[in-house]
TrEMBL record:
Gene: LOC118281107
Signal sequence range: 1-15
Biased composition (Basic and acidic residues): 825-842
Enzyme Commission number, as recorded: 3.2.1.24
UniProt protein name: alpha-mannosidase
Keywords of this entry: Disulfide bond, Glycoprotein, Glycosidase, Hydrolase, Metal-binding, Signal, Zinc
């Protein structure tokens, strides 16, 4: 009967829903749910967990759904399904979960009944969330802004769904490959009480085990002091279960079999092994508590296997401990409960003030390669962050509809996934990389609707009007943009996401042609056209028609946009009244009307076209600034066909445009030598009167406007000399050049006019009346005195410091031609041989090759033209100014001094024949023209120091990894085969000079490119680098680095940032808290560089390099900074990826392009402001304006700033985003001084937003600071007390932020009407006009 009553009682109990039974104790979550520990006993905390990578060997979706199990047997949905079911079976069981991205993906797909069970489990502390971020982020390559964002996003989901019971109390970083000090600081500011780590360096771990220092107090920031401290524990066995105790379907360990009748019974053997393990672990920790992790990668897909065996393990361990008097208590627990037990034990902890980089797992396995692996993905993540910050801001500032937050949340999720320690690190399989990029790219595209709506609303001044601009983003890292390449008229809107004004260079890719850029008020912007380098144009993934970039500098107010109207300009027709046109508008004021009511553009539309002025010597530099493409003479073999075609078109212009008008005079030779010179000059000048065309019949860009190579300059100067005669000779009425003047000439001295033939035309294109064999003697006799300077070429170069001597006779040519001009024999090669096979050992030009023939070799012709030009630089001048004879005495050009006087930038003087000076107001570089080697940097006070920039590569070790000696370099591991990198050779050097930017471009071999840029009045060098496709035909992988080399005596010390925020000192071959032994000295001295690395000497003269993405860096030699740029390897390093890091695109090695900014000088500034400006550069949006007239655009609201003024110095608006009906605002004081406080008045901060009240929150925004009390610990040297943080909602809107603090507020607000910025009248703007035509 009693059994019947018991059965009825049990059955009756089930009449009450389990949810109601368990909810009676719902308040016992978090620390309140922890089991009390037993004093005087070893408390063993069994922590069931799973580690679910948000992408690694499989994509996020493949992991969640359990797809592609042939790669890895893993399905996250089955894990959570199974765990919830098993937890529901017993109230004693515990489980922790980390990755909110997976949990949320699962949560939204569950029925209400399952969701209710989960709420109960969390409310009772049986299921606890740890970490809580969207993913378990990396700590080396990640940036603090993105880390904060992804914690904010994950914790918000947990807080909104589960309230306080959903708050994680500990960080759980069990798998990242090293740990950063700034991350510890961020967790402390988020209110976390502790942090648990899985991986630390094997030598560090050994030292900590021996010293019982596996748990410590980690100080996150020296300036913030004790408020940044956080308890940090290193797990004993990474995150794996004890050997032999993995009870998962993925494991092969024996289960616990407690059937005494079975021959497999093993309780008596397994339990003692486990108890011995935990007793041994306890020897290395300071309290009577040990944490035993029971789980691994994607474990618990069948959770019953775990819990059945863990139940037995706990039961029989406690029985044996009690029976044998072992004083051991084993129970289910969580990291929260373990931390609480340690806190109650109140141990004295050591303090750590550095970080855990670099991480090594054995003597040859330094995990420093991933600092750089997959550089294009790392850059894309940085771009994604900038788009995310911009979209969050615009959603608020433009007061857009709330439904946009759906796409904004999609972008938050994608960026959270990108922070995962196998995503931004580049340590995943290739197809997973593509999926990460797909996710982020799709999210940015979807969120771009916010930018489109915001700028259309602001620019059109009416939210109800139909949008006019379909804004697009462009692939500017490849200098590619569909809008700017295919639209004659387009609009570029530039947005500054920072809280202070910036001045930034803007570069817009465009095809060949002439463009004008109109600023917001109709001002024609000062611009410069810069040709794209062949290395950029040939990036395999690039699909673009752009051949050049429009470059201009613009100033942007804080949180502002500026809109620019860009118009492709067609060259106007020439005026028929060329002779009567006034060519001096600065004197006669007849180009522009003085009507103040017209903008520059309106004046441009109503002004007659301006013909070319007459030729005068003083106008020569301007006359030759036309659109003929003389790039044909450069040496890129890839463009040989295009170049030869352009050359032929240039030459063909002489015949097509000009015709003989006085044949009877030319036939009988009645023209004197003056007329002959004039005609020859006209032939050359005629070419400049017509724009060259390419195969697409598009205008060909003229490189003379932006910079000349040495050979181009020489060709130009030769033509200038020939043109010069027109100054003193009557031009008469004969306007057309006469070709027949060249007909009746003797044939004895034909060599000089072999070159003249090149300049005029080849024999197949010259009028048939002209003799095919040109001669010299016409220049020998009868020349007028006023023309003697024409061919006195040798005198011009005899002494660079003297002006041209006009008294010498041309008779010098008679002897020179006979004595020095020797015909070079033809190359003994097939005329159709490829150019790269041409013998270059003979440096003498072969003029005969340039003659026409049935088997013309275009490549050979180009080579010989180059040799002709190069020969002029071979003459040596002794101290007395005399010259040595040369085998080939081709006429010289202007002296170096004369070239300097004719240059666009006279202050950039050529130092001597082999060195050039290039720079701006802050720096100048001394460069060897021939080698491209940068030798020195010169400062405004004329002081100088050695400085050079070079590219190298390490050869990656390739091994089978069966032992440490055969470790391969791979996605994780950096292991070069030699400690000495191989330097790349310079192939070509190009110089670009202009008013806005000056550049020195170096083509490097193999597979390298550098472009050092000096922008006008900017105090940095911008170094653009391109690497790839990295060659592997020699069956060796390569790891490319760049070195910045100086003589700074940094004594083995260098400084790198921690996640883009604080700076840490590094010492070569040294670790602050333990003695290191380095078998791999290069990888062992590499550190992550998120934004900045610098070296300095005792006088604080420093060189700082700012990066545009995460890279590995070091200073292996005093005075040098090296940064790894790109990696392509052929072997796997055997740490799980299972494939080599061999990225390809379009069946070629992946090309990476990026930039650094280099600052040099005496300074103590940590450059934080400049770092932020490079991390969040202006966003460019492009819109076609084909159907939008300029007048309509000009009437729009083309500039606006949402801030009333710049934020106070040192204050950075880190976050502005919508938060339900409130705003989330984060303000950071980036000064590295706790006394550098700043006040910010939030009430009038924004023009269109009135802040009504604020509540201060912890850093992640999930928890108010009011009531939060930071835990204090005893530490070596004494105990420090920390007061609770004061907070609460307040109407006091003036906030004070101390140095290095980040303050987070939830703000009540209202939108207020703001006055529309009134466009200044044309009259008021006249003084600001910069009337500059882009050519």
């Amino acid at each position: 009967m009693q059994y019947v009553l018991l059965l009825l009682c049990v059955g009756g109990a089930h009449l009450v829903p389990l949810e109601q039974l368990y909810l009676t104790n719902s308040e016992k979550c978090g620390y309140d749910s922890c089991q009390a520990t037993s004093p005087g006993m070893l408390n063993v905390h069994i922590v069931p967990h799973t580690h679910d990578d948000v992408g690694w060997l499989k994509t996020v979706d493949q992991y969640y759904y359990g797809s592609r199990n042939n790669i890895q047997k893993a399905g996250v949905q089955y894990i959570l399904d199974s765990v919830v079911k098993e937890l529901w079976e017993s109230p004693k069981r515990r489980f922790i979960y980390v990755e909110t991205a997976f949990f949320w993906k699962w949560w939204v797909r569950q029925p209400p009944s399952v969701q209710q069970k989960v709420r109960v489990l969390i409310a009772q502390g049986r299921l606890q969330m740890v970490g809580g971020a969207w993913s378990m982020n990396d700590e080396a390559a990640s940036h603090y802004q993105s880390t904060i964002d992804q914690f904010t996003w994950g914790l918000r989901k947990l807080n909104d769904t589960f309230g306080q019971c959903g708050w994680p109390h500990v960080g759980w970083q069990i798998d990242p490959f090293g740990h950063s000090r700034e991350f510890a600081n961020l967790l402390s500011m988020m209110g976390y009480d502790g942090l648990f780590l899985g991986r630390i360096d094997y030598q560090d771990k050994r030292a900590r085990l021996l010293g019982k220092n596996m748990e410590m107090l980690w100080r996150g920031d020296d300036v913030l002091g004790k408020s940044s401290d956080i308890f940090t524990g290193v797990l004993y066995n990474t995150y794996s279960p004890p050997p032999g105790f993995c009870f998962d379907v993925l494991c092969s360990d024996e289960p616990i079999i407690d059937d005494a009748t079975s021959p497999l019974y093993n309780v008596e053997t397994k339990i003692p092994v486990f108890l011995d393990y935990v007793k041994n672990q306890a020897r290395y920790y300071k309290t009577q508590n040990v944490i035993v992790t029971m789980g691994g990668d994607f474990t618990y897909q069948d959770a019953s296997m775990w819990y059945i065996n863990l139940d037995k393990l706990i039961k029989y361990s406690n029985l044996k401990a009690a029976r044998d008097g072992l004083n051991i208590s084993v129970f289910y627990s969580t990291p929260n409960c373990y931390l609480k037990s340690v806190k109650e034990a109140n141990p004295t902890l050591p303090t750590k003030k550095d970080d855990f980089f670099p991480y090594a797992s054995d003597p040859t396995a330094y995990w420093t390669g991933y600092f750089t692996s997959r550089p294009t993905t790392k850059f894309f993540e940085r771009e994604g962050n900038n788009y995310l910050q911009t979209m969050k801001q615009l959603q608020v500032l433009a007061d857009l509809d709330k439904h946009n937050e759906f796409v904004l949340n999609e972008l938050k999720s994608a960026m959270g996934v990108m922070q995962h320690h196998d995503a931004i690190t580049g340590t995943e399989k290739q197809h997973v990389t593509h999926d990460y990029e797909r996710l982020l790219n799709q999210a940015i595209d979807d969120a771009f609707i916010i930018a489109k709506q915001a700028f259309n609303k602001m620019i059109l001044k009416d939210s109800m009007r139909k949008p006019m601009f379909d804004f697009q983003r462009c692939h500017l890292n490849e200098s590619s943009c569909q809008v700017s390449e295919n639209s004659d008229n387009f609009v570029v809107t530039v947005y500054n996401p920072l809280g202070w004004s910036v001045k930034e260079p803007i570069r817009i890719p465009v095809p060949a042609g002439t463009f004008e850029v109109f600023g917001p008020y109709g001002t024609i912007m000062k611009t410069q056209m810069v040709p794209l380098a062949a290395k950029v144009k040939n990036i395999p993934t690039r699909v673009s028609k752009a051949t050049q970039e429009i470059v201009f500098l613009t100033e942007l107010k804080p949180l502002s946009y500026r809109s620019f109207y860009i118009k492709k300009r067609l060259r106007p027709k020439r005026s028929a009244k060329q002779g009567s046109y006034d060519y001096y508008p600065s004197i006669n004021q007849n180009i522009w009307s003085n009507d103040p009511s017209k903008t520059d553009y309106e004046k441009y539309l109503t002004t007659e076209s301006i013909p070319d002025p007459p030729v005068y010597l003083e106008d020569i530099p301007n006359i030759y600034d036309k659109d003929v493409n003389f790039d044909v003479l450069k040496t890129n073999a890839n463009d040989k066909e295009h170049k030869m075609l352009d050359l032929e078109k240039i030459l063909d212009n002489r015949k097509k445009i000009y015709k003989t008008t006085n044949d009877h005079e030319t036939k009988d030779g009645s023209h004197d030598n003056d007329q002959k010179n004039i005609d020859f000059e006209k032939i050359l000048v005629a070419n400049r009167q017509k724009i060259g065309k390419n195969n697409n019949n598009d205008p060909v860009f003229d490189p003379f406007k932006t910079g000349l190579s040495d050979n181009d300059q020489k060709m130009l100067e030769l033509e200038k000399i020939l043109v010069e005669n027109s100054k003193k000779i009557d031009n008469t009425n004969n306007k057309e050049p006469i070709y027949d003047i060249l007909k009746d000439m003797p044939h004895d001295n034909k060599h000089l006019f072999d070159f003249e033939k090149i300049t005029i035309d080849d024999k197949q294109k010259i009028d048939t009346k002209i003799t095919n064999e040109p001669t010299y003697d016409i220049l020998k006799d009868g020349l007028r005195d006023n023309n003697k300077k024409l061919l006195n070429f040798e005198k011009m170069t005899a002494d660079d410091s003297k002006k041209i001597d006009k008294s010498n006779s041309f008779d010098i040519l008679k002897d020179e031609l006979q004595n020095n001009y020797q015909k070079v024999p033809d190359y003994e090669k097939n005329p159709f041989d490829d150019r790269k096979k041409t013998d270059k050992s003979n440096n003498e030009p072969n003029l005969d090759v340039l003659k026409g023939g049935p088997h013309d070799n275009d490549n050979q012709k180009i080579l010989e033209l180059e040799k002709i030009l190069v020969h002029n630089s071979n003459k040596k001048v002794d101290s007395k100014g005399s010259t040595e004879p040369r085998p080939f005495n081709y006429p010289s050009m202007f002296s170096n001094e004369e070239l300097r006087m004719l240059a666009d930038e006279p202050h950039h003087a050529v130092k001597d024949e082999d060195e050039i000076i290039i720079g701006n107001q802050h720096f100048k570089l001394e460069v060897n023209r021939a080698t491209g080697i940068i030798k020195k940097i010169i400062f405004p006070d004329n002081s100088r120091t050695n400085f050079s920039i070079n590219m190298y590569y390490y050869i990656g070790t390739c091994g089978d990894n069966h032992d440490t000696a055969h470790r391969a370099s791979g996605a994780y591991i950096f292991r070069p085969s030699s400690n000495v990198p191989i330097k790349l050779e310079t192939l070509n050097t190009d110089i670009i000079k202009g008013d806005i930017v000056q550049e020195i471009r170096l083509d490097l071999s193999p597979a390298g490119y550098l472009d050092v840029k000096f922008y006008d009045n900017q105090n940095y060098l911008e170094v653009e680098w391109v690497v790839g496709p990295i060659p592997i035909l020699d069956d060796t992988g390569k790891e490319y680095i760049i070195k910045y080399e100086t003589h700074i005596a940094n004594k083995g010390k260098f400084y790198t940032d921690s996640n883009g925020r604080q700076i840490l000192e590094r010492c070569r071959d040294h670790r602050p808290q333990w003695n290191v032994s380095l078998q791999e000295p290069i990888p062992g001295n590499y550190y992550p560089v998120a934004n900045q690395i610098y070296i300095k000497n005792s006088r604080d003269f420093r060189m700082s390099v700012l990066t545009d993405r995460s890279q590995g860096g070091s200073s292996m030699i005093d005075g040098e900074i090296e940064l790894m740029l790109h990696r392509r390897l052929l072997c796997d390093d055997a740490f799980g990826v299972g494939e080599a890091l061999n990225e390809t695109a379009k069946d070629k090695g992946l090309v990476a392009r990026g930039k650094h900014r280099v600052y040099l000088g005496i300074s103590k500034d940590n450059l934080k402001k400049q770092v932020v400006e490079m991390h969040q550069p202006p966003i460019l949006l492009f819109a076609d304006a084909t159907n939008i007239k300029y007048d309509d655009w000009f009437a729009m609201h083309n500039e606006f700033s949402w801030l009333e003024r710049d934020l106070p110095k040192g204050i950075h608006l880190l976050t502005l985003e919508p938060w339900d009906s409130q705003l989330l605002i984060r303000l950071e004081n980036y000064y590295n001084d706790k006394n550098a406080s700043a006040e910010v008045n939030l009430q009038d901060l924004f023009k269109n937003i009135r802040i009504l009240a604020i509540e201060e929150m912890l850093l992640a925004g999930h928890r108010p600071v009011e009531g939060y009390k930071k835990w204090t610990w005893k530490k070596d040297g004494g105990k420090e007390k920390t007061d609770s943080v004061k907070g609460g909602k307040t109407n006091n809107l003036i906030v004070t932020i101390k140095g290095k603090e980040i303050k987070t507020y939830l703000a009540d607000f209202e939108i207020r009407e703001h006055s529309t910025q009134v466009k200044a009248t044309s009259l008021g703007m006249l003084g600001r006009y910069e009337v500059t035509t882009v050519v």
